[in-house]
Amino acid sequence: MAKTPVIAIVDDDEGVRASLASLVRSIGYEAQAYESGADFLQHAPGDDPACMIADVQMPVVTGDELQARLIAAGRRFPIIFMTAFPSEIVRQRVMAAGAHCYLGKPSSGDEIIRCLEEALAGHVP
């Protein structure tokens, strides 16, 4: 039997984490939520998630810093970034480093699901 894909959700806003986790579970995936990039790096299980949805603006370890640390450690999996403060410079940097999507907050559930499904199917943006 195929293992249910695990989606890591990394956001410092508890409400956003809860709503994204609910959305992810509603379409049949397992959600693991982390309150920060540092929390993910310290507590994530040994297996990498199938995909990550991460906030860009977080204290201590920002989303793009988290991406850079994961890449440096040889950990590569699709990352969907979300931010309430879109920046073209940050968008270009994270996309060039392999991010799958860069979405503004708020984003529709349909848009998030589309990005997630494409990431899990291996679609290259």
Automatic annotation (TrEMBL):
SUPFAM superfamilies hit by this protein: CheY-like
One Pfam family from the record: Response_reg
A Gene Ontology BP annotation from the UniProt entry: phosphorelay signal transduction system
Residue positions where 4-aspartylphosphate is found in the record: D55
Keyword Phosphoprotein included in the entry's annotation: yes
Source organism, top-level taxon: Bacteria
Keywords: Phosphoprotein
Domain Response regulatory: 6-120
Organism: Bradyrhizobium betae
InterPro entries noted in UniProt: Bact_response_regulator (IPR050595), CheY-like_superfamily (IPR011006), Sig_transdc_resp-reg_receiver (IPR001789)
UniProt entry tagged with the keyword Transmembrane helix: no
Name the UniProt record assigns to this protein: Response regulatory domain-containing protein
